[in-house]
Amino acid sequence: MTEIFTGNFTQQEAIPDEGIKAALEVLKSGRLHRYNVAEGDAGETALLEQEFAAQMGAKYCLAVASGGYALATSLRALGVKPGDKVLTNAFTLAPVPGAIASVGAVPVFVGVTEGLVIDLADLTAKAGQADVLMLSHMRGHLCDMDRLMEICDANNIRVVEDCAHTMGASWRGTLSGRHGVMACYSTQTYKHVNSGEGGLLISDDDVLMARAIMLSGSYMLYERHLARPPVEVFEAVKYVTPNISGRMDHLRAAILRPQLRDLDTQCARWNALYRETEKGLRETPGLTVVERPEQEVYVGSSIQFLLLDWHEKKVNEVLRRCAARGVELKWFGGAEPAGFTSRYDSWRYAPSERMPESDRVLKGIVDMRLPLTFSVKDCATIARIIRAEVSAVWQAT
Ligand SMILES: *Cc1c(COP(=O)(O)O)cnc(C)c1O
């Protein structure tokens, strides 16, 4: 009998009861705007910022409307101007080059390795072209962060980390987001905590964070923030920093606070799913498992494997056969951007030169989400299905 998987790849877990309860309190209060607080009340948003800063070991945190907004705000805080070049990953999600384009800057794409991380040799070669790197830890893969920071420090490049897929991950004991001068997280439904939409930005830098808070639309109410630089720092920036409204409200903050308290537990659950899937995929002929460096503590909220040098028709055949058995795979190699997947040559507003080595990798990347509504047993089933279908198509070669 052919095994069919019946789980749903986009089904998230419910918001924890504690979050629902806190959200209802906010709704009953009628005070949803972050600066609309009762006398003596800090408000959910300011408390979220204070707690997330502490959790990440950062001095400051700002909660905003989305991860993409956090990225664009970082660039503005850094003073990136129209026409400036910004280094970024060729393998990332569309909001990353989009954030760069939103400030009128121009992305310079850096290649991707078979380990699915930024190609440090290519970064070194392009280091002279820009003084900001927007580093996307795409799909949760961390590059050698020690080496990356050496390269960037030697070239006076400031690093903004896109931690949309690495909230809770670390490199050699340092949390993801603590290497760069600023780091951005997404709290959108498909990430590690879920408020529908939302973003978090952290930094230890006084001026950058004061600018970011003003940019986010604090008006002159920045004193109400709990994870902010001293008020004196705002004196120098408050008249010259535009308000580009993108705040987070109390409702979303209320939903997020209990989820952040559970982050470590959730990450451990994701990794159990990841390891089971990876185990089941190992030694499938024609399929390359992406090996994880031992310095990396990852969060396996999705898994990638490579069908390197496969003909397009064969990859499509694998996707079709897996889909017929209930396993939804995404392919980064498709000629046309589809769903959430696109790649550097799809972003035609940002001209790029071909990168043959990266193209070979991108053409082979197959991606799958691992929502926490799946069990470890589900992951074993999924891996068996992928293994069978990849093997069948491979053998027919
Ligand atoms: C989701 C995502 C973002 C942007 O987050 P939004 O909250 O959706 O704006 C940025 N980078 C990567 C890699 C992402 O996956």
TrEMBL record:
<dbReference type="InterPro" id="IPR000653">
    <property type="entry name" value="DegT/StrS_aminotransferase"/>
</dbReference>
<dbReference type="InterPro" id="IPR015421">
    <property type="entry name" value="PyrdxlP-dep_Trfase_major"/>
</dbReference>
<dbReference type="Pfam" id="PF01041">
    <property type="entry name" value="DegT_DnrJ_EryC1"/>
</dbReference>
<keyword id="KW-0663">Pyridoxal phosphate</keyword>
<dbReference type="InterPro" id="IPR015424">
    <property type="entry name" value="PyrdxlP-dep_Trfase"/>
</dbReference>
<dbReference type="GO" id="GO:0000271">
    <property type="term" value="P:polysaccharide biosynthetic process"/>
</dbReference>
<comment type="similarity">
    <text>Belongs to the DegT/DnrJ/EryC1 family.</text>
</comment>
<dbReference type="InterPro" id="IPR015422">
    <property type="entry name" value="PyrdxlP-dep_Trfase_small"/>
</dbReference>
<protein>
    <submittedName>
        <fullName>dTDP-4-amino-4,6-dideoxygalactose transaminase</fullName>
    </submittedName>
</protein>
<dbReference type="GO" id="GO:0008483">
    <property type="term" value="F:transaminase activity"/>
</dbReference>
<dbReference type="GO" id="GO:0030170">
    <property type="term" value="F:pyridoxal phosphate binding"/>
</dbReference>
